[in-house]
Design a protein that fits this description.
Blueprint (H helix, E strand, L loop, with lengths): L6 H25 L9 H6 L1 H14 L4 E4 L3 E5 L5 E10 L8 E7 L2 E5 L6 E11 L2 E11 L1
Antiparallel strand pairs: 1-2, 2-5, 3-4, 3-6, 6-7
């Protein structure tokens, strides 16, 4: 017994193959995780002028924030001698929001992060702080081994 491959059978097979392909794509797309950069992005957008002012103030210092690997983790040195009030160091992981964390910045501007807090991959390190009454903002990329 042989199967007749007339034009109706071929159209049915092409249509069935397309439906199976589309159902597979729908399944794969629903399994994908989409993290927002920030959950309060609208409020941050309204305050973005402060980030621009902080970047301009940081550029006027002439020094950059340095990030160096140490035996115990990572050392971040801000370009100012002393931080006034409270600042914040935000380790932002673009591919997985659960790896993001924030560290308060106080004192001499040297922050040590233990290696147990970092997962392997790329981080964007964002520093916000005050110095001599002016806001400052630095940003750098760090690759955790």
């Amino acid at each position: 017994m042989t199967i007749k491959w007339n034009w109706g059978t071929k159209i049915f097979l092409v249509y069935t193959g397309f439906v199976v392909f589309m159902l597979g794509m729908v399944y794969l797309c629903t399994r994908q995780n989409y993290d927002l950069v920030s959950t309060d992005y609208y409020a941050q957008e309204l305050k973005y002028q402060q980030v621009i002012d902080g970047k301009n103030n940081a550029n006027q210092l002439g020094k950059a924030m340095t990030i160096a690997a140490t035996a115990n983790g990572v050392a971040v040195q801000l370009p100012v001698a002393a931080v006034e009030g409270e600042g914040e160091l935000h380790f932002y992981r673009p591919d997985n929001a659960s790896y993001d964390f924030k560290v308060p910045v106080k004192g001499d501007g040297l922050i040590n992060i233990p290696s147990s807090q970092l997962k392997t991959g790329r981080y964007t390190v964002k520093a916000t702080y005050q110095y001599e009454g002016k806001p400052y903002y630095n940003e750098a990329t760090y690759y955790a081994p």
